[in-house]
Amino acid sequence: MKNRYIKRFLPYIFKYKSAIIFALVFLVVASLLSSLIPFIVKNAIDNYISAKNLQGLIKLSIFLLLMIGVQFISKLIQIYLTNLSGQKIMKDLRHDLFQTMESFEIDVFTKEPSGKIITRITNDVENMNELLTSGIVSLLGDMLMVVFSIIFLFYINLKLSLISLIPLPVAIIAALFLGNRMEKIYEKVRDILTRMNIHMQESLTGLPIIQTFGVEKTNLSKFSNITKDFRFTFHKAQMLNIMLRQSINALSYTSIVFVIVFGGLFALKGTATVGTIVAFLVYLNQLYGPLGDLSDRFSILQNAISSMAKLDDFLTSNNVEKEGNKGFKKPVQGEIELENVSFSYDKDSIILENINMKIKKGEKVAIVGFTGAGKSTIANLILSFYEPDSGSVKIDGIDTKILNKKELRKNSAIVLQNIFIFKGSVRDNIALGREDFTEKKIINAAKEIGVHDFIMKLPNGYDTELSTEGKNISVGERQLVSFARALVYNPKILILDEATASIDTNTEE
Questions:
Q1: Looking at 351, 371, 405, which one is the last position of a domain?
Q2: Would you call 87 exposed, middle or buried from its count of C-beta atoms within 10 A (0-12, 13-18, 19+)?
Q3: Where would you tag: which of 10, 264, 417, 506 has the fewest CB atoms within 10 A of its CB?
Q4: Mean pLDDT, to the nearest integer, of 298-310?
């Protein structure tokens, strides 16, 4: 299963393989040079300090400084290339996720909490970024340091290496065992965080309702229960983390004691030197340090694997809208016909049953009914946001199931009672990013709907910035802006879904 996820994201990585390969080369160079430093220090102690060879010591010190400089530059280049390629990969991934989200069927957004979808595009992508820029690179760097350290230890003194590394297998087993347990707990932590984000987002969106009905305490109680779960679960993860680090530290100190005791005995017998003992102490620190950091690596890795699974499900979702391949015959007439249409949002509650309707080109038809009768549902069916359970919806004689949805909606417009205004200028909210809409076309649409004079009274006219959801203008004014938005597209089909509910009678007429 994990292999499937890896295959899914490999193309994103391969796109920047040159930078990643160079980053890995510089990582190997930096790790090797770091591992050479204790070996050179050993030679300095044994061959120059002990022999009181000042000239040789100065030359070796200069060489060591140059090597440290090369190591520093190599590490810097590796970090730069890793972060650069990581950010480019995340940009491509976010682009594809957002594009996928825009192609979802409309009912996905009624069934799934929006906070969950936002988490996919933000938090889960960031987890992937952390894996690429920190997790994998750090893990590879740690592995190289461990391998190089063991090689140099055995090269310097085989016997002392075998003795000093006795605690190492125990440390590895402890890291793997505790890491496996931490994996399961961190999965629970992530699930609770998702629940927390969803609850906070829903509470912010529905705050007026919560305050109106006075259910703040009930809502707070639900949030408190989630935070209690988070505190308890995260505490368990932290305790395992501490246990792992302390176990590694204890075993590391045990190895140091072995080096001091047995290294000292070997030195007295003449089979080891002071430089050897110093080098061993440094190498053991380089060896056990990465094992102590394994808990952090496990956390990053498990976060990324969990996010990989969720992002893969998102990108391969069956919720993507099926795009019809049949286009309109020109010119588009905008004739609408419903034949024996039945529809239900869930199979237990039928909203429409055997509905028949025909609207000819240029006709104005009002659909009247009580709340829940299916008026908005008919509008959604005409725009092919949903497909009927039975029967057919036809535009210009073409079934919407096979009609190209982009072409259908390009020739249609809808004005809803609950208007959404985007953060941006009035002009941007009318044109919705269409660069081919001229200033004249936008103004003419505003004049036609009677909103031009209102717009010109705003501080900066059409350049006036509107806040998110248009909260700095009235509900009625928002609806007028939405009317202008619909008219500027010159639609063949215009649907008004209680669109005049918040404007005065004169304006409505």
A1: 405
A2: middle
A3: 506
A4: 73
